[in-house]
Amino acid sequence: MKKSLLITIDYPPTTGGVANYWSNLAANMPAESFCVLAPDDENSVRFDKRQDYLIYRRCLFTCKKWRWPKWLPIFMHTKNIIKRENIEKIVVTHILPVGTVALLMKLLYKIPYVVSMHGLDVSYATVSLRKRLLSKLILRFSDTIIVNSNYTKNLMLKNLCDKCESKTKIIYPCPNVSYQELADQDLNLFKKDNKLEDKKVLLTVARLVRRKGQDMVIKSLAKIKESIPNVVYLIVGRGKEDVRLKKMVDELGLREQVMFFDDIKNKELPFFYHVTDAFIMPSRKLDDGDIEGFGIVYLEANLYTLPAIAGNVGGAPEAVIHNQTGLVVDPEDENNIAKAVIELLSDKEKSNWFGQKGKERVSEEFCWDKQADKLKELL
User: Fold this and answer.
1) Taking the CB of residue 186, how many other CB atoms lie within 10 A of it?
2) Which of 142, 203, 330, 378 lies at a C-alpha separation of 20 to 30 Å from 185?
3) Are 204 and 321 members of one domain?
4) 113-117, strands of its sheet edge to edge
5) pLDDT tens profile 121-169
6) Same domain (yes/no): 18, 98
7) Mean pLDDT value across residues 112-118
8) Pair 108, 193 in one domain
9) Distance (Å, rounded) from C-alpha 319 to C-alpha 298?
10) CB contact burial 348-368 (16+ within 10 A = b; e otherwise)
11) Mean pLDDT, residues 320-348
């Protein structure tokens, strides 16, 4: 395996999808064959010491007075690391601006490179003609393109590089939680404290933003109540839709059915998963193009043997396999959402089967070590 350099502008202790995705893949790579160039961060020492592989922390961009090219420090640091570590392949986590450096390294020093693409990368690469043309050039000269879902792959092929399909590979993100067993007495106390005894529980764990679709679940509850009178809906998360959603609950007279939890730590999430009957997040596409690129949270619910309900747009239908690990619905149709919820909450055998299939799928396919094996083959 060739020694590779990962160049990234998002890396722990910074949080976020890209940082999480690549730090987990890096942790499962052979330490002697992989190193990272990441932004300087005063809080990074503790994280870096825990890693087996080498991390170079550098200032990656020029000061504001020097407006272009801001990525020049990345170029210089990359050149130095290539020489010091005998790097034979480069991996970049963003097509812009880091991909520009990789392109130059190939043109000047014939070092092959891999580009990683997420949905937002495609959107950013197409905001101007200059960015689009540069992105097309970067993809054209790349050895391999890594995407996080089929949805992202198709978006990239359609908008940036229709001839890149053969060299595009999918490496899926994986859940960051592991199944945690809880004592019956602790669960019973949690149910009692939250008045969940003898209830059919729906759960959404997500930021409170329009894309996630909590409002559509709330709207569908009136119809769901007709068939499942003991239904309750737990909304875990915080965000700018908080006030609007709570007002909607009041206006629809659903205070007894909807509960908000906006200050929940990760270690508390297992309690919510254990008391839930079905997970739901009918994510939708917004007018500005914002869309769910995949949806790790569906897989996290599957880990707890829960069936999941997802919207039929973006990458969500890859995370939830319709009629196998859950149900896929029209996220703009409250009747369709209600029908799916009623189907799962009224048919325990089907619900359990979906949940079990989901857990098996996550355990077999969506593990970081198995996804890292795909990366090893590419490098």
Assistant:
1) 12
2) 203
3) yes
4) 54-58, 34-39, 4-7, 89-92, 113-117, 144-147, 168-170
5) 888 888 899 999 999 999 999 999 999 999 999 999 999 999 999 999 9
6) yes
7) 96
8) no
9) 6
10) eeebeebbebbbebbeeebeb
11) 98
Work out how many domains the chain is built from and give that number. Answer: 2
Domain match, 23 and 132 both: yes
Q: Is 116 helix (H, G, I), strand (E, B) or coil?
A: strand
For 45-57, write each residue's pLDDT tens digit: 999 999 999 999 9
Euclidean distance between CA atoms 61 and 69, whole angstroms: 9
**Cis status of the peptide bond prior to 112, with omega within 30 of 0:** no
Q: Are residues 323 and 244 in the same domain?
A: yes
* Contact by Cβ (8 Å): 104, 19: no
Are 112 and 191 part of one and the same domain? no
Distance of alpha carbon 238 from alpha carbon 48, whole angstroms: 30
pLDDT tens digit string along 183-205?
Answer: 999 999 999 999 999 999 999 99
Rounded distance between C-alpha atoms, residue 36 and residue 16, angstroms: 17
Distance CA 149, CA 132 (A): 21
Q: What is the DSSP letter of 98?
A: H
Evaluated on CA atoms 49, 53, 56, 60, the torsion sign reads negative
pTM for this prediction: 0.87
Query: What's the Cα-to-Cα distance from 111 to each of 31, 142, 144, 225, 352, rounded to whole Å?
Result: 20, 10, 13, 61, 51
Domain that holds residue 257: 184-365
